[in-house]
Design a protein that fits this description.
alpha/beta; TIM Barrel; 10 helices; 6 strands
């Protein structure tokens, strides 16, 4: 299984440049993957992307060194596992508000004994040199190389942030700027400069 270069970039203290893909098109994903991003996130929460299209977008991205991520619609184990099995190198999950939410998220994304992810990497196994008869080394390295990223976007999540970050298996966090603004009673707008929102972010 190839290394997740995002973890290496963060380990050097550098910023990851991530592209965002909400158009349901493998060609758009392919074009974006050739623009110099470190990672591309396929948005299945607010984007127009369904599962079968997401698979073709993952295939397009994986022809490049770019790391493919997926934002799922909700903290639902079946969807999380399916996206990882399809070849996502990480998942961004909305509305993670408590450490219990974070633990459930990690559990669905990690194999036993760390979690309860079911083994069936239908496409991801090819990252590990697998074939139709086996998964190569995917299962040996997936827990370390795939990223679990809670989306922080409510007052409750901000209050519980330290406890969420202490959950083993959390790889990073993603701020949901629009929902966070609304949770704080502010307008959801680009370039939000309200002091309360800026401080929370």
């Amino acid at each position: 299984m190839r290394k997740n270069t995002l973890k290496e970039i963060w380990a050097r203290g550098e910023a990851v440049i991530n592209g965002w893909c909400s158009i349901p098109s493998s060609f758009s994903a392919e074009i974006m993957a050739h623009q110099g991003f470190d990672s591309i996130t396929i948005d299945t929460q607010h984007g127009l992307v369904e599962y079968q299209t997401a698979v073709t977008m993952l295939q397009a991205i994986s022809t490049t060194p770019v790391i493919p991520l997926i934002r799922v619609p909700w903290n639902e184990p079946g969807r999380l596992m399916k996206m990882l099995d399809a070849g996502a190198y990480g998942v961004i999950c909305p509305m993670i508000n408590t450490p219990e939410d974070a633990e459930a998220l990690v559990g669905a994304c990690k194999y036993p004994p760390r979690g309860y992810r079911s083994f069936g990497p239908i496409r991801a196994k090819y990252y590990g040199g697998g074939s139709s008869h086996g998964g190569g080394d995917y299962h040996q390295f997936a827990d370390e190389e795939t990223l679990v990223i809670p989306q922080i976007e409510t007052r409750e999540a901000i209050k519980n942030l330290d406890a969420i970050l202490e959950v083993p298996g959390i790889g990073a966090i993603y701020i949901g700027p629009s929902d966070l603004s609304m949770a704080l009673g502010k307008e959801p707008r680009k370039g939000q400069s309200d002091p309360e929102v800026v401080e929370a972010r």
